[in-house]
Amino acid sequence: MLYFAYGSNLHHFQMKRRCKDSIFLKKINLKDFRLTFRSKYRAADIEPKRNSIVPGGLFEISKSDEKKLDVYEDFPILYKKYFFNYYGKKVMTYTMVNKSPFKFPTERYLNIVKRGYKDCNLNEKYLKKGLQGS
Questions:
Q1: Distances from the Cα of 4 to the Cαs of 40, 56, 101, 134, in angstroms?
Q2: pLDDT by residue (tens digit) across 51-68?
Q3: Is the pLDDT of residue 27 over 90?
Q4: Cα separation of 77 and 7, whole Å?
Q5: From CA 1, how far away is CA 25, in angstroms rounded?
Q6: In the chain, where are the structural domains located?
Q7: Strand runs labelled E in 1-134
């Protein structure tokens, strides 16, 4: 199954620890969405926004990896699954159920996301934009 990571799961070492079968395929952009941070966890989320993009990592994951991600993402309470098509292939990602106001992430979490941006060779300007709130 294809999985799109846009937050702390971009961090290759952490993703491998969490999902032992995961394979990073390449970086892709999710169109008409923007990155933000929210909830009491101050975690990454995506929300619809025209003419905006969220860069992320495309991973191949197994069924057991998906189950581990479901637990980690507190599915279906904190995050729900969102599916989109990428060149005719179905891709799964997570998006927060409760769209609470913007909350700046903790330094620890942000450093993991930044490392993930480097691991996946993503443009940090989108991360900086996401950190500015709405």
A1: 23, 6, 23, 23
A2: 999 999 999 999 999 999
A3: yes
A4: 18
A5: 12
A6: 2-123
A7: 2-5, 23-38, 43-60, 79-86, 89-96
Closest-CA residue to 3 (of 33, 23, 31, 17) = 23
Which of helix, strand or coil describes residue 125?
A: helix
The predicted model scores a pTM of 0.97
**Which of these, 12, 7, 28, lies nearest to 84 by C-alpha position?**
28
Strand 89-96 versus strand 2-5 pairing type: parallel
- C-alpha to C-alpha distance for 96 and 92, rounded to whole angstroms: 14
- CA nearest to 58, candidates 36, 34, 86: 86
Residue 96, token pair as written in the block: 């927060």
Q: Which CATH class is domain 2-123?
A: alpha beta
Q: Which of 117, 119, 39, 118 is nearest to 127 (CA)?
A: 117
Which pLDDT does position 134 carry in this prediction? Answer: 63
